[in-house]
Every structure is written in C-alpha cells, then in structure tokens.
C-alpha cells in the first residue's frame, strides 16, 4: 500500500464514494503517515445499507439456495482470502501496526472461519421431540435476519470473518461497521465477497464513526441482531441501543486474563508462552494474559528471565515483522503511558526494549514493554484492562490462593495454567470463572473450532465453533396432532 487508499461505503454491491458524515482518515501507527481516507456514513447511508440487507434477506436468493450451495460460496471466500494472503497481510500491518506474521495469521484464520462454517452450512439440524402417541414434534433452525457486526481495530480482518462467516452460513444478511482506526482490509473483504458470488446486498460495508454510524445502525429497527466486539463502555451503549428495539446481542468485550505458573512447570516451555500472552500485538488483545500469578519459590527467577526476555526485544514497523510493533495510535499511546505512572504508584516497574531509533519511526506510537512487581491483585494496575504490553506479576503460596486471585477480577475471558501436574491443572481449571482455560498453552492458533467468549464483564454469547451459529438462528417448533381415528 504505497499510495493512499480511499475506502468507500458499499451498499448492495454499489460503491458510495461519499458519506453524509464527511471523510475519515487512517494513519500508519508506526510512522504517523496517512494511509487511507474513507467515506463516513451518516443516517442516509445507514438507511440504505439496512434497506439493502433487508431486501437481500427477505427477497434475495440466499435463503432459497440449498445449504450446500451456500457452503460452496463460503468456501470460495476462504480460497480467495488465501490467494490474496500477501496483499491483505501487508495492508493490515500498515493500517493496524501489527507484525506481518500476525497479519498473516489474521488472513489464515479468516480463511479457516469460511472453511469451517462453509462445511457447517448443510448441517444445521433441528431436533425431534417425543410427545407420545398421535403427536409429532420437531424444530427447525431459521436465520435470524439482518445481522450487524461492529468491529474493533485490533483484529480488523479476522473479527469480520469470525462473525460474518457463521451469520452467512445460517442464512442471514450482514452489515459490517469497521473501526474508524482500521478501515482498510474490510474493503478487501467486500471485494472478495463480491468475487466469490455472494448475492447483492447480502454483505454491506458501512464505514464511519462509532458515535454516528455505529449508533444509528445499532438503533435501526431494520436490524435483527448485533454482534459487538469492543470495549465495555461502548458495549454498554450498544446494549442500550439494542434494547430500544429489543434485539439480541453477542457481546465480546474486554479482559484482564490471569496466567497461573506453578513451580513444577517446565519454564523453558512456559515462559515463551507467558511472554507471548501479554506481548502479542503490543498487548492489544482482548484475552491478553496480563496478570501472572507465580508460585513464590520461583518468583524472582521468573521475573529475571522475563525481564531479560523483554529487554532483548526489537520494536519496529509491523511490515518489517519486528518482535513488537506500535500501539494503534498516539492517543492510545498516551493512555498506555499513563499506566506506567500507575504501575510505579502500585509497585515497581521494570521496562524492557528501547524505543526504535530510526528517524522514520519517530512519530510512531511505540511503547516499551514492562513488568510490574510488588503490586497486589487489588491495585489499579492489576484490575484495569490496559491494552498495552504490561504484565503484573503476583506471587502466591497455594493453589487456592492462585485461584482466588485469578477469579478476583471484573473480567472472565480466558486463563492459562502452567504445570506438569495434571491433577493440579484440572483442579484449578475447574474453579476458574472464565470462558476458556488453556493448560500449558495460551491460545491454540487458527482455533476456529472451539467456542470463545466471556464470563462477567468480558461479555456474553459465544463466537467460534458450532456454538456461534445459534446467535444467528431462531428456533421454530412444529407440532402435529395426527390421531389415526
Ligand atoms: P471500542 O469499543 O472503542 O470500539 C469498537 C467498535 O464500536 C468500533 O467499530 C467503534 O467505531 C464502535 N462504536 C463506538 N461507539 C459506538 C456506539 N455508540 N454505537 C455503536 N458502535 C460504536 O473498542 P476498540 O477500542 O476498537 O477495541 C478495543 C476493545 O475491544 C478492548 O476493550 C478489547 O478487549 C475489546 N476486544 C474484545 C474482543 C473479544 O473477542 N472479547 C476481541 C477484540 C477486542
């Protein structure tokens, strides 16, 4: 992406180069250079997008196709993503700042979502229910209707695929509202959908400000369901908007995920996982493992090793595939740096890698990774989601203490457990109030098959796996009375 991109609104396969809320801009977070401008939707374009999606859902061919035919088109979308892997990954790294290998992962994972749900499209069975003699009863699964997908900036391409693939498999029409910070790859997604042969109006792209286009869409009476991924405060606003017309929502919100490291763990294997858990995409990951509960006998050794590790890291532009790229923006950099002061108030801050020295990166939103020691689990640094590369390390003496600390959080998205003792791993895992438990792992990679979602403030509903499909379906029951005489 050497030339500046222009990202339109796409409604019913029509490209709208102008939006009634003006023009937005997106910057390369590594350099501060303007990389894209985009049309910002207002009420006019929001109405057009909802009308196009409604028409596609109510009268278009998608629901009349046989499910396996829908599945074939979804598979084709996955294939086209993999064919354009290099181009999309590069654009994603420039727009979002993430290292190139993570952008490749986004594209690969997105293709997997379309493969997985393409395969599921003809397996969305109902059930038969025994009512006794003279009765037959069964359920069918019907598409819920027009599904709105509100996307954050941290995984702009992959999070579109995560929600849109199951929605389409279920037979829905879709409206995508990307983050105003990362509009670029959503347009690539639209082009692929069109090339794969999705019917007109089935997928619509509405760029714009969250407070304008996002809010108008969430309140729109033509929308039947919302999948929101983002922060807790915005999620609460979206829930209020959804409540204004009583529609269901999937809420994927924030986290402050614990990792529990026992003294019997194999540190050579565990510490790279612990480090990856809070450093991936500069800590801007909803499930980032940002609280490390470590058994006291190995606390100092673990801190030394982690500090050596973060000190040796390279920081740079995402396209150069450094150990760590920049944050999403200078505004977010200011937010994260505020937590360095909070860390020093709550405990001791050990910083790692130096900032990049190159003049071309002087305006980049880079921050140094950090460890916080001496802060307990009730401090601000241990409780708030930072969305930056900062790990709070907290010692524990017993497994019960580790579990209590891990659960003492407003969030409950994921947890990691590192131990070579399987009883300990499963006993602790059973007691954790989180949506996913990873043992001797933190993430699986291309993990589209199992459900993902949170307890508590981390949200509700599940993405991924077969569970995700239920958000996009209504259950209809048939009962027949058929006495022979
Ligand atoms: P955000 O809440 O600021 O924005 C998310 C989206 O909501 C954007 O598209 C934004 O334009 C839109 N929006 C803003 N105001 C709106 C309104 N009033 N009505 C409708 N839409 C509105 O989040 P962000 O800063 O883009 O992303 C970071 C957050 O996302 C973090 O809290 C992170 O934990 C969370 N996240 C969660 C998951 C998950 O799966 N649980 C995944 C990724 C990110």
Task: Walk me through the structure.
InterPro entries: Ald_DH/histidinol_DH (IPR016161), Ald_DH_C (IPR016163), Ald_DH_CS_CYS (IPR016160), Ald_DH_CS_GLU (IPR029510), Ald_DH_N (IPR016162), Aldehyde_DH_dom (IPR015590). With 485 residues, this protein is of the alpha/beta class. It has 2 domains: 5-253 and 462-476, Aldehyde Dehydrogenase, Chain A, domain 1 (3-Layer(aba) Sandwich), CATH 3.40.605.10; 258-447, Aldehyde Dehydrogenase, Chain A, domain 2. Helices cover 37% and strands 20% of the residues. The chain has 14 helices and 22 strands. The protein has helices at residues 43-59, 67-83, 85-96, 100-120, 158-170, 184-196, 210-219, 232-243, 267-279, 299-311, 330-346, 380-383, 399-407, 422-431; strands at 5-7, 9-11, 14-16, 23-27, 34-39, 135-143, 146-150, 173-177, 203-205, 225-229, 249-252, 258-261, 291-295, 348-351, 370-373, 390-396, 411-412, 414-418, 436-439, 455-456, 459-460, 473-481. The strands form 6 sheets. Strands 14-15-16-13-12-18-19 form a 7-stranded mixed beta sheet, sandwiched between helices. Strand 2 and strand 3 (14-16) form a beta hairpin. Helix 2 runs antiparallel to helix 4 and helix 2 crosses helix 6. The longest helix has 21 residues, at 100-120. The N and C termini lie far apart (74 Å). It binds nicotinamide-adenine-dinucleotide (NAD).
